[in-house]
Design goal:
73% of the residues lie in helices and 3% in strands. It is built from 12 helices and 2 strands. Strand 1 (100-104) and strand 2 form a beta hairpin. Helix 1 (2-15) runs antiparallel to helix 10 (153-183) and helix 9 runs antiparallel to helix 10. It starts with a helix and ends with a helix. The mean pLDDT is 79.
Amino acid sequence: MSQNLERALLGLDRAFRPQAKGMAREIDPRAKLLVALTFLIAMLSTPLMDLGRVAAWGIPIMVAAYISRADYFSLVGYSLLLLPFVALIGLFNILYEREVVASLFGIAVTKGWIMALAITLRGIFSVQTILLMVFATGIYPLCGAMLKLRIPTLFVAQTLMIYRFLRVLLIELQEIIFATQARSAGIKRYPLRLWARIISELLIRTIRRARTLDMAMRARGWQGDVPLARQQYVWRWRDTLFLFAWLGVVAVVRFIRL
């Protein structure tokens, strides 16, 4: 448990700065953000019954991961953490859409199963796109690009504070786990009652930290502005080529039937 928390803390620390190498790191964050937003809009607007086209959206993600020199299998592993939540959304389609549209090895495939699988793929690909965007850009440059593109400051501040507060939350959880291990006499599996106490203690510490953070920000006169707005970005020709090249890829996957 403690090792998993340490890996999560290291992952959050790496998220604050770009990890991509080569050309992907030199591209203007605004160009990468525009590509990511266009990609998400085009993918989420793909009809659910067009399962082949929905699955095809995974190819640009793999290509982008290769260009950024990111570990695609790690992206898949992180995205699968949300698989139960995404699958739960598609479950209702299985229950209500019972029209048979195909037969696979003698097994009737209903419309609901196809829609549920498409919803699951779109959710996984969306998470992978966001994770890849953070890997290639970093949280600070990404939030700065959001401000430059006139995205509301409140949304940008919330995004930045969530990442900042996640680290504090993981540190608090790590301290609770260490204290529990020191008093558990080598017990590796905790009973449900102990997990309930750990979660309740974490909730109390989270609320306490949030109040302290709110008072500190108010004491410093914070009024919703984000200092990242002072960052300077220079748009170059390679950024324009990058933007139009990926927009072309998105258009091909979305509208052209291969």
